[in-house]
Prior knowledge:
This protein is α+β, with helices and mostly antiparallel strands. It has helices at residues 104-122, 174-177, 217-231, 266-271, 280-287, and strands at 2-7, 12-17, 48-50, 57-61, 79-81, 86-90, 129-136, 148-154, 178-183, 187-192, 201-205, 238-243, 254-259.
Amino acid sequence: MHEYRRNELRNCLVLLAEHRAKRPHLKKGTRECPFCRGREAMVPPATLELPKGRWRVRAFPNKFPFVERRGRFAWRNGRAPAFGDHEVIVETHEDKALFENYSREQLNYLWSAYLDRFNDFSSRKQVEFVLLLKNHGSKSGASIPHEHSQIVSYPFVPEQLKGFLKKPCALCDHEKIGLTVFSTKNFRAITPFNALTACELWLVPKKHVSSMLEVDGAELLEAIQECVRRLKRFDDSYNFIFVNSPRRGNLHFHVEFFTRKAVWGAVELGLGIYLNQTSPESAKKLLG
């Protein structure tokens, strides 16, 4: 079953995907890793391989997707099919390689794959928003340690993003949203004043751009590598998401990073009030 259900009492969405419980949970270095070169038969056929032949980056449909391209998306009695597309992007053929250590050449392959899959997903019918994400570490939700990203399409704009669509753009005035940890030519890494997680980082273009298609990919990925290096001083597990504009809208593209050191308890789960034990001022010192 792949189904969205509205939780009217808590004003949120629930996504049911029972078969996800069957995902393999592997340890790093296992001989059974399905993401290693030579084990392509263990996963669905590729939608992209770069370069062709002895690939270094490979994309394919997720074997355990939480959305599916079946029928049409429509709400009925608080329920709707979990319609969409879900792929895995294996970032490297090397099982023990780490994102923060990729060479410029590897980053170029990865960026080309990101753009290819983002453009493909964005062009499909009934797609309103495309999410590019990465989970790393035992506490992040990743079930396979071999470095990989995922890309997912949605037939609606998630509620959490609608605040970014308001005018004037909040992210254009970076001093109002957080403290700058470091800068590159075209990006600022900011620890937001209202962070949900300790040492949360946002990587924000200095100029307002609506999507990843409008930025220098090499500079962005190298800045993401630097964010990851600094976050790992605090916690080895992390998540990041690319926040692009939906099909109808113009938000300020950025990348959000979340650490997973703290475990959410009754207050967070029951009330939606997020306890953050690290202030942005302390986070800046830890990550600076």
